[in-house]
Structures are given as C-alpha cells and as structure tokens.
Write a structure and sequence with these properties.
single chain, 577 residues, alpha/beta, Beta-Lactamase, 3 domains, globular, binds zinc ion
C-alpha cells in the first residue's frame, strides 16, 4: 500500500470514529518508518478491530462514486477514499485451507454451507472469508474472533485470484481484461486489433446489455479503466492501454459535441446512439484529473427514475401509510436518506399519484431530472439568483396546490417551506438525514421553532435502496446462528432460510437484478405533535412512532432478507444493524 493510500485509509477510519486522532497520528508516524500492510499492522497490534474495519467498509464502501467533479468538499474527498479501504481489506488475506478446517472443526459451518461458499467464491473470485461475509454465513464479529484464534494472517497477496487476467507484455497490442476487487464477474472482450471507434461502441453496447446507469472512463497509470454502475454499484469491466486513451476520449467528446482541444476545464454534453433499432441518450461530463480527463456518462432512461408507488418496494401496510400521507390536502412530507437512496424516484412516484387528483403541481428542482406530464417544473439557476428559496417564494404567489422542492439544505429554504405548509399547501421535499426521526432535529437545526415543525410536518419517509437478488439464479441456504443473532432473529424460533444470487446471464453475473427500497415512515400523530413541541429526544419520538406502527429501516431490511428479496450483506451496507 502506498503511503498516500495509507493516509486516506487512516483519515476514513478516523472520520468513521474507528480510530482516535491521537492513534491515527501515531499510526501514520510509524507507517513512515516501517513497510508492510498498514491495516494488517493495525489489526494485529489490536489498535483496530476487524469488526470496526468491516463496518467502515460496509458503511462507506458504496461511496466509490466520484461523479462529483470537484474534490474540494470534504465529503467528496472522504467518499473517494472508501474504495481504497475496500481494496486494502481485500489484500488482507487469510489462509483458506486453515479457515475451512477451523470452521468445520469448530462446528461453525456445516459441510453443505461451506460447499455453498466455495461454489459462490468461484463466481466472485473473492477470498473465502469475504464470500462468507457476503453470504451472511459469518458475521464480522465471528471473523474477528477467527483472526484472533488463528493467529496473525499470512502475507498479503496481490489479488491475482480475481477473475481473468490476460496481461500482455506489450502495451497497445492487446487489451488487458481484468476483474478487479468488487464483483466484476464478467469482463468485456475486445479484439486485439480494435480501433477506438469499435471499443467505444462495445463499451456502449455492453453498458446497455448490463443495465448500467453510468459509465466511468478513468485515465489511470498505466492503464485507463472503464467501469459500469449497475444497480448502484460500480464494476470494473475493462482496462485499456494508455496508448488508446486519447483516441477513445476524443471519440466520445466528438460524439457529445464537445471541444476536444480543451482538456483542462470540465465540459458537459449529450450524445445519442443507436443499438438494435433503439435510440439511447447519454449525458456526458468531463472532469480533469491528475492523470488526464475522466469521463462520466449517464444513460438517460425514463425507467431508471419513473415508477409508481407500487414498484418502490413498500410492504403493504407501509404503502397504506404513505398513501394516507399523500392524501392529506396540506402539510409537509419529507423524504430522507443519503445521496443515491432513491429519494427523487419516490418523490416522483408520489407526485404522479397526486397528479391524478389535482392539476396544479409546481416543482423546483436542481436539475429537472425528467419532464413529468401535466406538472410545471422549474429548474434552479443560481447564476440568475433562482435558488430553491427564491423560486419557492415566487411559486407561492402563484397559488399552486402542491409544491415539490428538490432539497431543503439551508435555513432560508426550510423557512419558506414550513411557511408554505402552514398556509394550506401540500409540500414535498427531501432532507439529508439518516432516519425519519432525525428529520425533526434537522429542521430544528435550521432554526425552525418546534411548534412550527409540529404543525407543518405531516410525515417523514426515510429510505434506502438495496439490490434485489436475481430471481433467475436465486439459491436458498440456512444462515448460521451467529448471523441470525446479529439480525436479532431467534435461531430456534423456526427453520430460517436466506437467499443469494449465484450469478447468471440475466443479471450480468452480479447475482442481483434491480433494486428495491427499505422504508421507515412516520405519520405525525397528535401524540407526536405534542412530543415535538415539547422538544423530546429523537429516541422518545422513535419509540412512540414504533408503538404507533412504524417499521424501522432495520425491520424493513430484515423483512426483505427473510422474503429472499435481498441479502444480509446488502442490508448491512445500507442500514446499521
Ligand atoms: Zn442471475
């Protein structure tokens, strides 16, 4: 591991609370003097527990995204390092044979479960321990224990076990097809003699085939990397020799009608291409990086955003709760969750629902993602002073019945939004909070008086997206007692069966097909209004909401695991259990 990576890893661990600043500093000092795997040193010296590390990876591992161009915001910088942690964990190798013997002898796994893990590993190319964590056959806690009892793990191995490596000694002659860390179980194949035009066509066609929503083309030394985002996760699909990099980038920039000589400033463009009689559109953005221009292409597919309430993945009684919220003639409904948790999709689904009942809906968005029929959509434009707050203020004067504000992220917008909800409008918006009760605290932090929050707010929907197990290749297995315990399920209560996807043609060998939502819905009742006005804690609000029938995100996740809709791994990544 290089030292800048070490620094990033330590920063991430520190930000996640797994290391104190003092320890972090000491570790980095030591790191300069010694060589070797930093994480391994941290774990074997007992400074960091494996469980803590695993948790950090589970929680932040999905922020591999670098769609956001500037690295100025600390959040973005923070997210960018997560992938490095993931890679570092992969390097932390544990002897498979030793592990197998241990697991069988200690009775933690049956031969059948072990066989299932070994079989799954063939598809993922992951180390055995990771496959087992992914399958939910072991918990991070159990892994920590195993590491302790097994003594220090073996030397860190480069990830040569991962997928096909067709390395060519001569760059430019052949394309190297690699499957990196995460689950790239399938790689694109390109002819050795392929031209830039052919490679770009293949990249596009395969992206459609793989149901990718984004394509990342990243200049890196020594090879350019191509990744697809499928169901929210990035997969490495191809690396290209540096020699071909300029022609591939130019080809895409030409298609997107961009200035090909400008390489230092970010540019935006659009392109369309045809595949099997169908036209596809993409939004293209270039971002200058240290190694050259990076391209991010977003496939604009209506089906990626537009859907009905029925398709969001709500449990029947949650759907009922949400419908009753939407049916209220006035008040504020907030959808909360991190970036990429499907908030916009849910808002659009809700708007589509009310669109049938009324015809005076106005939205203010940044940017307008999709044109909705019969709805007036305004786009934020800070250059001319059109912000969420100012836009909302002028919309209020136009007597709309229903308003949608893309996001409440400042005091001004919060104030206008609350006022709108109090003066008889129905207002939908999103907020960046972890769960439903914390939305109330966040509004308070924007300076809104508790009694105003209590009267303005009709409900909060917290949500997360998890990947759906592919129905074509779903396999059932009996989870270990440890996993059940971790999820709060009683092993002896019944014969539990969980599922995972082995990977097949249909799901592009990812084991997952599409995503579904986990929900936590608060309906603000009279009792809750009193508690909010009295400034009771989030815990108190949550307890009452649960009494009144709210399912938490955790419950929602566990329900989906039991139904075989998703895996424990997916739920653990999205929701802290
Ligand atoms: Zn499948």
């Amino acid at each position: 591991m290089q030292s800048d990576t070490a620094q990033q890893v330590v920063a991430l661990l520190q930000a996640a609370g797994a290391l104190t600043p003092e320890v972090a500093e000491r570790v980095l000092m030591q790191k300069q003097q010694t060589e070797g795997n930093l994480l391994q040193t941290l774990i074997t010296s007992g400074v960091l527990s494996f469980a803590a590390l695993q948790e950090v990876v589970l929680r932040y591992g999905r922020f591999i995204d670098s769609d956001v161009p500037a690295l100025t915001s600390p959040r973005v910088a923070f997210e960018g390092t997560a992938e490095k942690v993931g890679q570092a964990v992969d390097e932390y190798s544990i002897d498979d044979a030793q592990l197998q013997t241990f697991l069988l002898q200690s009775g933690r796994l049956t031969q059948e479960q072990l066989d299932a893990a070994l079989q799954a590993r063939q598809h993922t190319g992951h180390p055995l321990w990771r496959t087992m964590l992914n399958l939910g056959l072991l918990t991070p806690q159990e892994m920590t224990e195993i590491i302790k009892t097994q003594g220090p793990p073996g030397q860190a191995q480069p990830t040569t076990t991962n997928g096909a490596m067709v390395e060519s000694p001569e760059p430019g002659r052949a394309l190297v097809l690699q499957a990196h860390h995460e689950v790239a179980r399938r790689v694109i194949e390109v002819e050795e003699t392929a031209t830039a035009v052919q490679i770009v066509n293949t990249i596009f066609a395969e992206a459609i085939q793989a149901r990718a929503t984004d394509i990342h083309i990243e200049p890196q030394v020594p090879r350019m990397r191509v990744r697809y985002r499928i169901d929210g996760m990035l997969f490495d699909v191809l690396t290209v020799p540096q020699l071909l990099e300029p022609s591939i980038i130019s080809r895409i920039k030409v298609l997107a009608d961009m200035n090909i000589t400008e390489r230092r400033l970010p540019q935006d463009g659009r392109l369309s291409f045809h595949l099997r009689e169908q036209e596809y559109n993409m939004r293209v953005a270039t971002i200058p990086t240290a190694h050259g221009e990076k391209l991010v292409l977003r496939l604009l597919m209506k089906s990626n955003v537009l859907t009905g309430l029925k398709q969001l993945g709500l449990e029947p009684d949650d759907e009922q709760r949400l419908r009753s919220l939407i049916a209220k003639p006035q008040g504020m409904i907030l959808v909360t969750g991190p970036i990429g948790s499907g908030k916009t999709t849910s808002l659009y689904a809700a708007l589509n629902e009310v669109n049938i009942l009324t015809n005076n809906i106005v939205t203010i968005e940044d940017p307008v993602e999709y044109q909705l029929t019969g709805i007036n959509q305004v786009e934020v434009d800070t250059k001319i002073g059109l912000t969420f707050a100012s836009g909302l203020r002028s919309i209020l004067r136009q007597d709309a019945d229903i308003l949608m504000v893309g996001e409440i992220r400042d005091v001004e917008t919060a104030t206008v939004a609350v006022r709108a909800a109090l003066t008889g409008q129905q207002l939908f918006s999103t907020l960046h909070t972890v769960d439903a009760p914390s939305a109330i605290t966040t509004l308070g932090n924007f300076g809104i008086q508790p009694y105003l929050i209590a009267s303005a707010l009709s409900g909060v929907v917290a949500q997360r997206l998890v990947r759906r197990i592919c129905p074509e290749c779903r396999r059932w297995y009996t989870p270990s007692a440890g996993v059940l315990h971790h999820l709060g399920l009683k092993p002896d209560q019944q014969e539990w069966q969980f599922a995972y996807g082995v990977g097949c043609e249909t799901c592009y060998y990812t084991g997952y097909l599409g995503r579904t939502g986990l929900f936590e819905i608060i309906r603000v009742s009279e009792t809750l209004r009193h508690l909010i006005t009295a400034q009771k804690s989030e815990q108190a609000l949550k307890a009452v909401a649960i009494q009144e029938g709210m399912h938490t995100l955790q419950h929602s996740g566990i329900a989906k695991i039991i139904q075989g809709v998703t895996t424990p791994q997916e739920v653990m990544r999205e929701v802290y259990l």
